[in-house]
């Protein structure tokens, strides 16, 4: 309740509106750029013969231990980059999902001869970069510092010390990132789509969760490194101001003594598409937009005969501003800022994915248009104009990429990994020019399957879910949590004699009872939170009947303050007074009220019991409230104990969600000591009560407005 009031304040609303205006301007600029780009395509030039292209040279070598080297010389600038790429097999981590990523991060945190600080200092001193991960270690520097860089890079790869304190730090950072991703609908959509597409038993369908991270030990990280960081699985890719001979000599110098057992491939069944169209839903409380993802697995690898025709097909369907999906959903219907699709090849299993974020009220209409365009691409020939435009886009992108020496290295790596013909990329434009409309239709029929797709929506269940059953082949929507675990939705009917006031009365009784609440004459609460390493402190004081003082500081500096003495109010932001109109003062008066649930009718609230909902496995009454100033919110109360567990507050077109937890008793009254706020910032903010005192005899002078 307390955090909710902080984030309702008008000061924050102004900041949010300014931020939204910037984002809107950004997208408008993008939109205008897209429109301008389309004008010159109205009369596409006639295709000429495919130009002959020269792919930059590269050389390869192989050491006795199996390490394969790929060298691309480019002497335009005195810089060189090194990468060790590990061509990992499919790896099932099971209940330790995330161990690979932690191990990849950890190897740069110390070696048998260098501490983390010494590694960082050595890299910074020569102005180089060094990055490590589960499948790659890379670095770049000026040519004159290449040996110093390679000395550190090789030390990190061959001699990691796996310091336990750094391991615990990485686990903590991983858990923090997971907490943020659980509040991000796009991250939720990506995670659940993986589980639906591949199945939780396939390595591609495994997700890193709080539970799996907590299961990971230091020995698990070491085991991953020892098994998979082996030369027979590694490619040493060198690009820049260096000769092939020097690169090979460096590889021999630093990696010839590197050994490891050969890693065998593990076999997993090919994931299958759903037998029929399946609608899947993840509830995101308070969401004002739905993230739509239409997806399924496909048997599609780089270098397949139909690969180039498939890229043409997808460019027409969902490739950028000129794709059919974007022209329909954005330009024609104005449902979204952007819609697109990808047909992605992979060494083991590819996937089709089409997506967009749309307003709640048009979610079902947007899905209808998605399915219409997806069906159309495989049932009707594309136009000559679309075909030529797609070819031009792909040819232009290919030519631009060739300007980068890293592209040549990537082509060389792909040629080796996917066993492509040596001239695969050299003849790309020639093969692209020969793609016909019939080839596009054939590719669509092979890879586009709306009748066997997952239609995943992450959004507001109460406003969206019921409208989507018609797209499911059996007329039922499947519900999942943020990690792709199925949630069984019960048929929950309200008791006939239950009203919104009954729910509020139960809440008041649950936290201590009306008589007990009336004995509280003042209250002081101190709360804290961490924002990107900085400490946010908030102190709120209240005195009956309607006085309030609030101060928020960040790392000791006052960010904002508010006071209300029962009649007058004052707000200050970073030393500047903020004007308050009558509506803001009226809202302040409500916020200043101690335990407003005991006086809702007197204060002028309107209430309606909307129904029963499942929240994080708990049944909860949903009560819609409209304040005297017109602010709307939905309050959720656990039916098992009457306590408030969530509040969703409408805030200028965006909903702010407050989740309440860790109720503790103070002087016979229960207060939530933990409140998590999401929807206000890109990441959730958890406020924890550090101290809470009642009836300390606060003086009216503390609330005086000067």
From TrEMBL:
Residue ranges the record marks as coiled coil: none
Annotated Peptidase M16 C-terminal domain residues: 215-394
Molecular function terms from GO: metal ion binding
Domain Peptidase M16 N-terminal: 94-185
Protein name per the record: Peptidase M16
UniProt source species: Flavilitoribacter nigricans (strain ATCC 23147 / DSM 23189 / NBRC 102662 / NCIMB 1420 / SS-2) (Lewinella nigricans)
